[in-house]
Amino acid sequence: MKTYWFRSMLALLVGGFLFSGATTALAQADGNARGRGGRGAAFQNMTEEQQEAMRQMNQETRELSTQWTEARTALNEAIYAETVDESKIREKSAAVAKIEGDLNVARAKAFAKVRSKFTPEQITAMKRMGAMGFAGRGGRGGRGRGAGGNN
Asked: Which of 33, 120, 131, 139 is the most exposed place for a label (fewest CB within 10 A)?
């Protein structure tokens, strides 16, 4: 029970950092981001309305984000078990894939509701970050990696 509670709280915390904390991280990273195309500069001066839109997107996808974290944790446990159980790993992988698909659709729907609040430059920056795994929890970047760094 404590483990479930801990994982749930961890998932909520991580989700909060990924979405609502993105503006702070991007503003702080602005100096480094300029050399890579200025992704951080696009978010440095976000309005309150834009920040609220980011929080709204986070809120709408929070439950699925938590489910994804739990499914990914279960997959990692299967991957790093003492014995290799291929069918269990495939089962857990399929569960992660299904939730990730649902989460991506939910993100798209949540973003569609607030898209008009962002500038074209900010939208381009979001696309770049998603491709790198910053905004995308299931992304292939540095976020959400399990033990061993393989997602």
From this structure: 120
